[in-house]
Amino acid sequence: MKLTITGFSTALFSTWYFIEELSLLFDCGDGASSGLLQKSHKVKYIFVSHADRDHLTGLLQFNQLNARPGFPKIYYPRDSGSFHFLEEFTTHFDPHVSGTEWIKMEEGDMIEIKKNIFVQPFRNKHVPVRKELVKSLSFHVFETKRKLKDEYLHLSGKEIAALRNELGKENITIELRENILSYSGDTPIENDGRWDETKVLIHEATFLRKGDIDLDDYRKGKHSYLEEVIEMVSKTKVEKLILGHFSSRYSAEEIDEAIDFFCKKFELKIPVFRVLPGETVRDILRN
Q1: CA distance 79 to 281
Q2: Between 79 and which of 25, 133, 228, 238 could a Cys-Cys bridge form, CB atoms 3.0 to 4.6 Å apart?
Q3: pLDDT by residue (tens digit) across 75-117?
Q4: Which residues of the chain have pLDDT under 50?
Q5: Segments making up each domain of the chain, as ranges
């Protein structure tokens, strides 16, 4: 599936990614509406990874401009209290947005956004919380298809149709899932294979090297650094990588040089794209 992805992602300031073919927005930081302009009305589903302000403060303006009956549907981590207050405020401040749906989500949900297209949230470790709480999530986007079971492949079309009428489609086929897109949100890296078989991975890389992180400062949550992201992806079956959420302390030259250096160091051969600090990038995969 062709994906047209537009995004802005600068640590501390704002993050959002729009996938046009799926009417899908991951996170909604400041400037999402002005960055997308009329295309913002194409968004039907907003998945917010966590309640840090740089990932959600664009919601009020976005909702004010684009609310209509049943849309947008705003999905948020089940135990993030901020969203209840946002919903309450925006409903009173802009009564016309009452058609918006605010929906809690948790790890393991399979949320259908188009026919045979599902978003599945799963927890990450950005926000240190007790294991029963859900406050920070990453996402897979799956496309599902059904394939005829091997034992029926020899049958004619007429025989298959008869069998489908007799047993039902689900009983003569198996479901295949293709992971067409994954989004990390803010998170330290995980070396558990969670990104395996991803067509396109959008992953944060707030810092360039481990030494740039203040490991004692947990107020900002836990993040990844570029070197470990490239190393992790080099050992994973990912077809394309989009890097974002870089700290604004880095220049474009520093980031590009570091990406080039670490791709060579870890022999990463796949296409790598980046969203530089302060830049809105349109159709990222074509840049």
Answers
A1: 32
A2: 133
A3: 999 999 899 999 999 888 888 888 899 999 999 999 999 999 9
A4: 215-216, 218-219
A5: 5-286
Report the residue count for the chain: 287
Return the CATH fold of 5-286: Metallo-beta-lactamase; Chain A (3.60.15)
Determine the pLDDT at residue 103.
96
Q: How far apart are CA 205 and CA 268, in angstroms?
A: 16
The kind and range of the H/E element at 273 are strand 272-274
What tokens appear for 169 in the block? 């489609």
pTM, two decimals, is 0.92
Question: Among 147, 149, 146, 123, which Cα is nearest to 136's?
Answer: 123
Bridge partners for 24 per DSSP: 19, 45
Residue identified by tokens 């470990």 is: 228
Residue with tokens 């298809």: 145
**Token digits for 46?**
């907003």
